[in-house]
Amino acid sequence: MQARQDKTTSSFTSKKCPYCENHMAVDDRFCFSCNRRVGKLNKATGMAKHPVAWISYIICFLSWSFLVFYLWWAFFR
Question: Any idea where the domains of the chain sit in the sequence?
């Protein structure tokens, strides 16, 4: 019988940048070609994942909070 490769093991030795598709080492956090931050390896495709933009989420949350506070202060106080 032929042994199947487990889906949790990775046979990739490099990953591709999702922005410029440049090959880089699996452990790299920044692409040396486009100087952008990249995430972990997607084991199904061999591409690097897009990193989460936490700053954008925080700014959005603060903006909505300020809007709700302003509406309360202006109309319901």
Answer: 14-76
